[in-house]
Structures are given as C-alpha cells and as structure tokens.
Design brief:
heterodimer; A: alpha/beta; seven-stranded mixed β-sheet; four-stranded antiparallel β-sheet; B: alpha+beta; three-stranded antiparallel β-sheet; 3 strands
C-alpha cells in the first residue's frame, strides 16, 4: 500500500524552501519522494547482497528486490520486465540506444534521424556517429516546438536504422507526436527510440500502443534517486544492440556491471507511486499552471509562452517577458529557484539552442524563464512566485531602454545596434 | 554565481535611473549594446557651459552586472568634467564591482556608453 502524498507535505515543504528559496526547477531534477527513500534504506544495510550472487540468501534477497523494481517500472510503461534494462540514467540510456543500434545495424544501415531540440546527450551521440561515417538528419521543429510528421517521413530512407525523438522536451515541455512517429516507424520498419526522461511518470506511456522500440528513462526526474535510469528494449520485434561496455554480461549483456540494488528499488517504488498518483497529479499541476499563467497575464503585457500552449506537460512553464533580460530577472527573484534560457553566464553569450530552433528571436530567448512545478508545489508557492515575478518584471521594465522604446512605438528591429 | 555586494547594491538600489530630454542641446545620449547579445545600455549626460556633467541618467536591459556597471558609471561621472569622464576605463568599473571574467563585457559596455554619450553631445555642437 502506498502512503498518501499529503502525509509527507510538512517534511517536503522544508526540503523545498531551503534558505527561504522556493524550489521551482522540477525539470532539472526532482527531490526523492520520502516513500522512495524509506524503501531504499534497508538495501544499504541488511539487503546489501550482490543481486547476481546465485548461491546464498544475501544474493537472492537483493535479486528479488531488483526484479520487483523492474516489474514496477515495466508496469508503468506497459512493457514486459525482461525488456527493462537498468542503467545509470537517461544519458547512458540514450547513448546505449543510439550507439548500440548503430553499432549493430551499421554500416549497412547508416542513417539516423533525430531533431534539433534533443538533449545534448542525444545530439552529441549522433555527432560522434557522424565522425564514424554515419549520416544524421537533424529535423527542424515548427514554431510550437513540434516536428512535422511529413518532414520526418520524407527524411526516411532505405538506409535509416533509427529515429530518435524525445517524448517531452526538457526546456519547453512540449510533447512530440509520439503516436504518429511510432506508427510511421513501424510501417517503414525503422526502429523508434524516444528519450522519455521528462515524460515517464508524468504522462501515460504505453510502449505497445505507441510502437516504441527503445525508451530512455531517468530516476531523478520522477522523484526517484539520481544515478539510476533504465532503457526499455523491445523483444518482439527484437531490437539488437551492440553493448558499449564490456563486463560480466548483466542486463542481457546490454549493460554489464553489478546492479545498485538500493537505486533499483528506489526507481521501482518511484514508478509505483507515479502510476498510482499520475492522474490526480496531472490534474492538480494543470490547475496550478493555469492559475499561474493567468495571474501573470492579468498583471503583465508582452508575455509569451515558449512552445505549444496545449501540447505540453503541465509541470513546465517556459515564459518570455519581453524587454527584460532573463539573468537580470533571476537575480531579482533570488528566492525562487528557476532557470533561464539566457546564457549570459556562459562564455559564448549564446542563448538556448532549443528556443533558437523554435525560431524564437535571440532577444526573446534572452528574456525567458523556465519554471518547473511538481509533486510538492503548492498554491501558495505559485502565488508567491507569480507575485515576485510580476513585481520584478515591472521594476526591470521601468529600467529597460528597450521597454521605453517599445512604449514609444519604436520598432527595435529598425535600430542599428552596436556590438562590443 | 556569487555577486559582489556592490553589484547587488547597485542592482537593488540603482542610482540615476531615468531619462533626460534628448532634444536639449546640453544632453548627450549613448545607446550601446544589442538586444541579441543580451545587453543594451542607454546613458545620458547633461553638461553645463563649464563642461561639467550636471546630471546623468541610465536605463539598462541586461544582467545584474550590466545594470550595476551602468548605475556605477552614472554615479562616477556626475559632477566630473567631460574630460575626466572620458578618462574612465572599464577596468576601473570591473575592479570596483569585482566582476568575474565572463562579466568583463558589462564594464566595457559601460565605458562605451560614456564615450558614446560624450560623442553625441560633441556632435550636437
């Protein structure tokens, strides 16, 4: 029986308001659910056995716990437990899926299709394959952040071995048309991999219904521990992978190494909780998100939501406040832990490549905030965040020469700016 | 990233925010930077017949360091002669605010803004 979420709100409230700072960055990571921690603890102690030891009860106990966790995760995604491979996280899962398929089916099938707004670990895996002679198509996205299915179909060739398309984008929260992509890939006999780190546990995901062949999962994005994730690998029709690491052949030879029992258990319980609470949580977060956005819009003009307004997860609010620089804004809202699409701190001065891929103007990309809400975010948090942001945006706009010009009706695009 | 107290002070309590009448022949306006780079400064000076900067105002779109650099610049040039203001170097601003290397461009922009405002004033004469 799962203990209800409400029981732990006092404890979580403290954890998520440290030093007076409200945590609103749930796409970066989620805190471990206390129910997950409780389930993990015994496996650091009496349950320490090696789950691969076949000759004594220490091993059996650990193995049983890992297999139970595998079942919970499989149940969450409509898979068979044998199709779940534990990894260290979504980055490793993405690497194994992409390089693994390429390694097995290349060089005869040497073409991969992905998209420009993927996570860096997908893009960089593809870049590496390009150096090894693979061809990679990086599909553009439309203004709403979603790919065009027709463009995907046109990019497919006889040589295509894999389509890798993320389920939910980590920066802008949009949901790609996974069902259509899956159907198309199945029709053409091309394997379909999806990085579902931001989707699993938040949206109903069924690998059968969606024709997904490979799927990456992350523990710490779904209130589980860091350092664990999983890769779903379809058995029928079978997806074969070239392993990236050599070892004792654990995890069907796909990912050698002793399983971290406590982390596996944590991921399993996290999956169990997500499955039980998903519907209510989705509803609750949608209400919070809508409340936040309408409050912001009521008090501020020139506010833009980045990414499709409807086809997105409720936990992600990526929002641009025209004429207010994101990093400057973040400094004013120090009591809110959020992230910005402005990359003023990086040496490059380049703002988010994801927002750029959407065709968001560079200047607008500099004005974006990513606000991530989740399981322990309350109405009070949301009201506080909205009040603080409204106040600070107004203050900074009064200080912004761009806002002045906008108010005077000057088109900023007509001005010759000086670089430096 | 930890900001120096002086950056935070100028960010939270910026000095001389505002505008001067651009049509006034005693007023020089410098507009530097670009929205695409993430910072734009507008710095204005009002210079009397003795060549002394009587008033200075700024508005800045940018990060905390950019706002602080321009706020500090207006504070420093007020009451100075145009020639003294001309001599202010970005390194002095950066040192005073203890800007890290990635924020050096903010101080450079403030120097540019002072120079641009003076140039604009001189062009009016």
């Amino acid at each position: 029986m799962i203990q209800p979420r409400e029981d732990m709100m006092t404890k979580m409230s403290k954890i998520l308001h440290q030093e007076g700072v409200t945590y609103l960055d749930y796409q970066a990571t989620t805190p471990c659910d206390p129910r997950v921690v409780d389930a993990m603890l015994p496996y650091f102690q009496e349950g320490f056995g090696n789950p691969h030891s076949r000759n004594h009860c220490y091993g059996w106990k650990a193995e049983e716990a890992c297999e139970k966790a595998r079942e919970h995760l499989a149940d969450l995604i409509g898979a068979h437990p044998k199709e779940v491979v534990f990894t260290s996280g979504a980055t490793e899962s993405n690497n194994i899926a992409i390089k693994g398929v390429a390694g097995f089916y290349g060089p005869e099938k040497n073409h991969i299709i992905t998209c420009q707004t993927e996570h860096k670990c997908v893009l960089n895996s593809c870049r590496q394959l390009e150096q090894d002679g693979f061809e990679v198509t990086y599909l553009p996205v439309q203004k709403n952040g979603l790919i065009d299915i027709k463009a995907l179909e046109e990019a497919m060739t006889e040589k295509t071995c894999l389509v890798s398309m993320m389920f939910v984008n980590n920066e802008i929260g949009v949901i790609q048309p996974i069902r259509e992509i899956g159907r198309l890939c199945r029709e053409k006999g091309i394997f379909f991999h999806t990085d579902a780190a931001q989707a699993v546990g938040k949206l109903p995901v069924d690998v059968e219904e969606l024709n997904i062949d490979l799927m990456s999962i992350s523990g710490h994005k779904m209130y589980g521990p860091k350092g664990i994730g999983a890769l779903y690998v379809r058995r029928k029709p079978r997806v074969r992978l070239k392993a990236l690491i050599s070892g004792g052949g654990q995890e069907r030879g796909i990912r050698s190494g002793t399983l971290p029992t406590p982390l596996c258990v944590g991921l399993g319980v996290a999956a169990e909780i997500c499955r039980a609470e998903m519907k209510d949580e989705h509803h609750r977060l949608t209400q919070l998100r809508d409340h936040f956005v309408s409050k912001i819009r009521e008090h501020l003009e020139e506010v833009y939501i980045n990414g499709d307004e409807k086809l997105r997860i409720p936990g992600n609010i990526n929002i641009s406040f025209a004429h207010v620089e994101g990093e400057g804004l973040m400094m004013g809202i120090k009591d809110l832990a959020v992230s910005s699409g402005s990359a003023c701190t990086s040496a490059s001065l380049e703002p988010s490549y994801v927002l750029r891929a959407l065709g968001v103007d560079v200047e607008m990309a500099h004005t974006s905030l990513r606000i991530g809400i989740g399981r322990y975010t309350t109405q009070k948090d949301i009201d506080h965040a909205a009040d603080r942001i409204i106040k600070e945006v107004k203050r900074l706009r009064d200080m912004s020469p761009l806002w002045d010009m906008f108010k005077q009706g000057i088109d900023l695009k007509t001005i010759e700016w000086t670089g430096h | 990233m930890a900001y120096h107290n002086r950056v935070i002070d100028h960010y939270e309590n910026p000095r001389n925010v505002g505008s001067l009448d651009d049509k006034d022949k005693h007023v020089g306006t410098g507009l530097v930077g670009a929205p695409a780079c993430g910072d734009v400064m507008r710095l204005q000076i009002k210079v009397n017949d003795e060549g002394v900067i009587e008033d200075a105002k700024f508005k800045t779109f940018g990060c905390g360091s950019a706002i602080a650099s321009s706020s500090l610049a207006t504070e420093w040039i007020k009451g100075k002669s145009v020639n003294e203001a001309k001599a202010i170097k970005n390194t002095e601003i950066a040192d005073y605010l203890a800007l890290p290397p990635v924020k050096m461009h903010c101080s450079m922009l403030a120097e540019d803004a002072i120079q641009a405002a003076i140039k604009d004033l001189e062009a009016k004469k």
